[in-house]
Amino acid sequence: MEVFGLKDLKTVPDIFHPYTDLLRTSGTPIVIDNGSYQCRVGWASAQKPNLIFKNVLAKPRKERGKKVTELQVGNDITNMEAVRLQLKSQFDRNVVTHYDVQEQIFDYSFSHLSINTEQSVNHPILLTEAFLNPNYCRQFMSELLFECYQVPAVCYGVDCLFSYQKNNPAAQYGLVVGCGYHCIHIIPIVDFKPDYSRSRRIDIGGFHVVNYLYRLLQLKYPAHFAAITPSRAEELIHEHSRIAIDYKEEVNKWADLDYYNKNVRRIQLPFNITTPALTPEQQLARRKELAKKLVEMNARKREERLAEEEEQLNQLLAIQEMVEFNDAEKNIQEALKSFELKDVNDLIKSINQLRSKIEKTKQKICGANVVTDTIATEEPKLKIMKEMPVPKKDEDMKKWISDLREKRQRILDKRSARKQRKQDMAKRRTAASWERMRIISQLAGNKKDKRDDDFGMRDEDWDVYKVINKDGGDSDSEEEQEKLIELEEVLRQYDPVFSENSNEQELNPEEAHQLHFGTEHIRAPEVLFQPSMIGVSQAGIAETIEYILKQFNEETATNLVSNIFITGGCGNLPGLKDRLRKELMEIRPFQSMFNISEASNLMLDSWFGAKEMALSDDFAKLSISVNEYEEKGMEYFKEHFASNVFVPSPSAIPVEESPQTSQTPVS
């Protein structure tokens, strides 16, 4: 069966694109598709975005004694999981709210476009924003662009509407399904204009699909909790997941074992191969080597100590010679004082002690070589049972070891069976507990008279408890435990691959680190159609489309479903188009017609649509200049097909201050 590996792709840092004289002097617009998953930045004259990176930044914690760490943005973060807890985004769902992070993203984008004009970006900006973006958020974005970067003009638009305009420039009616990272927007197009009041948002997106799969796999494989990461869950969604056409029907198929084995995908997790245990010969050689090193180290220490003691002895003997030759009393006292000796008697005593120490040290050094071999070659004594004679031939040895392993396994199986039976008897309504109650009731019914039955006078009377609690306890396992210990000692000595925790049925390391990717590959994407699976009390895509269509008359609804347009990253999930076709067939009247299409490039068509607008002749008219920004306010922008609707914020109502009345303090 095929096993799929994880790519664990590392991002490649973005290059710094050349800032040519033509770009500098022509005032070419910069198109920024500011998505909550990816940011796509490029010159309007480019064939494709110059920069595509994840719209996050990481600020690693400053370690004591080190320099200030630099911010990492987008593709500069080569290992996303290493800084997962330090990741920051400027978005709250799909709305920009953290403008300090947004400023860092702009700095990264403009610096990699190599714009080097001092304190300004002398190029118009076309920037995408959230559908029905609040004026409060837009005014901070305009302030950032005009005040901080000194841009000459800004134009705002909605990403999914740019994508629709690129693929359906002449369509009068349509229904846009914009599948984003944090939410899905369904926008009806009526008479070439978006119907904002009848549009709807679902708070489910690609992030929720990935996060749901991440939690499912961690719950299913708690042993691989650390190996299952959001990045790997995202890779599984991109490479192995799809949307089921009929979710319930496909889930029921997985109950069949043959279908499961045929369709399950085994995902190989990375793992480190553990080194096998040392054979008895290797262990013996290692013991010899360690013993040799230990003896050499002790001998070296003894030799150093012997040299110090001999030097000290020579100095004391020199003082003794001074005493014998009647040297000056003053010199003798100074010499004794230097060795902390009181008189000549202490000197003689110290000399004798040193000579004794030196003699013992020399004896230890001489006997060290003899002890080395006995330490290195000493083997643990093993008491082998009389009924297990050790064979001499290799073939007989293999069969003998195999028999020992089988005996050990039978003992372990009996133990596990007793343990399981004991657990079953503790539970209610199990076969073991019913059997125990049946035996107790029979024993109670056998004795009808109340006379003294002399129970316990014979040893056989106590066997009744063994009948009641058959194979349920550990009272008869002392002999079994001794036998198990002896078997393990013999196996440990003669079986080089034996381990106390070994089991013949144990999976090899590769199989032990595999994920069985079964129903999860359709279960996680199903949240787009059933948000209740993750606790979100909202309608799915199909139900929301049905709700929107009911707000129009039949003619308009028919025109809308004749041009259903899918765009956004989640549209890349296989089966989305077929699932929508099935759902619409159930929603729409009998034999009614509808058509579903998708963007030619689900991820980049929003940038390409914005690029076409930036190169159009009307771009200057649709952008707000610095003068208009200063005159009409920070929240102002100009409307066009792909933009939001401009609704000025209501002016604050002045509150008249009530006249203050003088109050006489109560005495």
Automatic annotation (TrEMBL):
Pfam families: Actin. SMART domains: ACTIN. Residues 287-319 form a coiled coil. The keyword Nucleus applies. It is found in: Nucleus. One of its GO terms (cellular component) is nucleus. Keywords: Coiled coil, Nucleus. InterPro entries: Actin (IPR004000), ATPase_NBD (IPR043129). It comes from the Eukaryota. The keyword Nucleus applies. This is Actin-related protein 5.
